């Protein structure tokens, strides 16, 4: 139990700021969907999908390699070698892609705005240089500074978006503020705000940056790369699974490019309604990765990993119910101005189930990271990519973005099963699979029951009350089944002790 408390503490400290920053960022969605039509929002989604791919390519697993080798090597040696490698590759990749920015813009159906690609490259480069300084803060136990920088980043980002798209855009033509706004820039203001926030982040990390000393020990660098290069495949493949559906929608949907961008915008806006599970998974990973490595040599590590997964699944199920039982409220998250976004609401439960499978897979991935079998993890990810691309290629022309939702749940479900089977072979962990399946099944059952009630009754207040009641039923079920486990937790434990 003390180890679970330790993980919870790390997750709160390092994940709390991530929750706040991500949630504030997600709050921009209603603004962006009200300011931009679905086609323009599709451009934003496509650009950030492109950036997500580049983030994986630019960092190539060095963050995880840092946490792995800092357990056995001097921290300065690991940090200096890893950062030297990142610095060289970032400069080289940025220059190469910058020269092809016009061709990339044409491929992404925005040929008149190559500057969007160039601004995005600056964002990716600055964010890449901040990765290892942030890892250093996590390793050295500097949660306050970590949280402060993350929060200031998103506050500046949101502030600048509001400044350009609300204050400047809506000002009278003869005012000073209106002079800051250029209608030709359009969605580019979202990129410029992000670029300014990334620059501020790197400035606030100057102490960690100045702690860097050039050191590129060839033999140690080879060890780092031998460990991290399969993680590039894992990360890149994971991002393909996460983002390739936007590109495939853009290219495979029948009709004009404007119609395709509109469908991408609708799909992307509804995708963001999986916010609770996404935030929880991202927060969990920030605390879990260094924790898993630090506990890997403990005798009871497998038992600890099993208990972590069980409570992780329970938390994800609450997130699932928290969104799917109240979709009629969450839809306003996408704004009231463009109700066209609401046509994709029913893909949200499918996507959230997929995110639960993804979260379980992240828990299971500990076996190949601590046993140095990252290449096996890469093959699992490649399998997921094949599932994603095949289903999307076959079904997008006929069922549109529903194909993307089906592909996502099949991909992450397949990766979860493959990792569970292989993990038990190389690093056995006594996971409670029956309980996990039971909790997920109960969540799906409660959602389907709620959908049945929606077909019968139309009063929103009644459905809202029913959603709360069904959530309480699930809570009581958890309390009944996990009473002994819950009794060991601080603060709430005394309420479950017999």
Could you please describe the fold and organization of this structure?
The protein is an all-alpha fold. It has one domain. It is 79% helix and 0% strand. The chain is built from 22 helices and no strands. It has helices at residues 2-26, 28-35, 38-59, 62-69, 75-99, 101-107, 114-140, 143-168, 188-204, 206-210, 218-252, 257-271, 275-295, 301-324, 327-330, 348-364, 366-370, 374-399, 401-426, 433-456, 460-481, 483-486. Helix 1 packs antiparallel against helix 13 (275-295), helix 8 runs antiparallel to helix 9 and helix 18 (374-399) packs antiparallel against helix 19 (401-426). The radius of gyration is 23 Å and the shape is globular.
């Amino acid at each position: 139990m003390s180890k679970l408390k330790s993980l919870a503490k790390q997750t709160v400290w390092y994940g709390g700021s991530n929750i706040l920053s991500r949630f504030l960022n997600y709050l921009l969605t209603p603004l962006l969907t009200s300011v931009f039509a679905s086609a323009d929002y599709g451009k934003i989604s496509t650009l950030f999908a492109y950036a997500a791919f580049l983030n994986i390519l630019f960092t190539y697993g060095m963050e995880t390699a840092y946490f792995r080798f800092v357990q056995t090597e001097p921290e300065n040696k690991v940090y200096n070698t890893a950062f030297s490698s990142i610095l060289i590759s970032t400069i080289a990749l940025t220059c190469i892609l910058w020269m092809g920015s016009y061709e990339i813009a044409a491929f992404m159906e925005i040929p008149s705005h190559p500057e969007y690609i160039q601004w995005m490259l600056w964002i990716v480069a600055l964010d890449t240089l901040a990765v290892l300084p942030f890892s250093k803060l996590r390793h050295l136990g500097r949660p306050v500074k970590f949280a402060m920088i993350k929060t200031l980043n998103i506050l500046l980002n949101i502030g600048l978006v509001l400044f350009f798209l609300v204050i400047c855009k809506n000002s009278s033509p003869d005012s000073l503020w209106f002079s800051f706004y250029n209608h030709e820039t359009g969605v580019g203001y979202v990129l410029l705000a992000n670029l300014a926030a990334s620059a501020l982040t790197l400035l606030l990390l100057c102490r960690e940056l100045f702690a860097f000393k050039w050191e590129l020990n060839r033999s140690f660098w080879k060890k780092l790369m031998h460990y991290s290069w399969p993680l590039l495949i894992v990360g890149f493949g994971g991002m393909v699974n996460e983002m390739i559906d936007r590109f495939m929608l853009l290219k495979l949907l029948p009709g004009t490019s404007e119609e395709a961008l509109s469908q991408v915008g609708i799909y992307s806006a509804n995708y963001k309604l999986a916010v609770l599970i996404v935030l929880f998974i991202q927060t969990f990973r920030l605390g879990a990765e260094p924790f898993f490595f630090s506990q890997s040599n403990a005798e009871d590590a497998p038992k600890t990993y099993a208990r972590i997964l069980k409570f992780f699944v329970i938390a994800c199920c609450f997130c699932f119910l928290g969104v799917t039982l109240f979709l009629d409220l969450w839809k306003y998250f996408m704004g009231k101005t463009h109700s066209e976004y609401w046509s994709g609401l029913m893909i949200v439960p499918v996507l959230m189930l997929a995110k639960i499978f993804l979260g379980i897979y992240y828990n299971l991935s500990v076996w190949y990271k601590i046993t140095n079998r990252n290449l096996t993890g890469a093959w699992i990810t490649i399998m997921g990519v094949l599932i994603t691309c095949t289903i999307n290629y076959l079904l997008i022309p006929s069922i549109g973005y529903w194909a993307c939702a089906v592909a996502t749940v099949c991909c992450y479900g397949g990766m979860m099963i493959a990792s569970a089977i292989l993990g038990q072979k190389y690093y056995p962990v006594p996971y409670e699979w029956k309980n996990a399946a039971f909790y997920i099944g109960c969540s799906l059952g409660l959602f389907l029951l709620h959908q049945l009630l929606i077909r019968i009754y139309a009063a929103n207040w009644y459905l809202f009350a029913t959603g709360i009641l069904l959530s309480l039923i699930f809570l009581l079920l958890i309390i009944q089944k996990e009473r002994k486990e819950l009794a060991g937790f601080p603060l709430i434990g005394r309420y479950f002790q017999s």
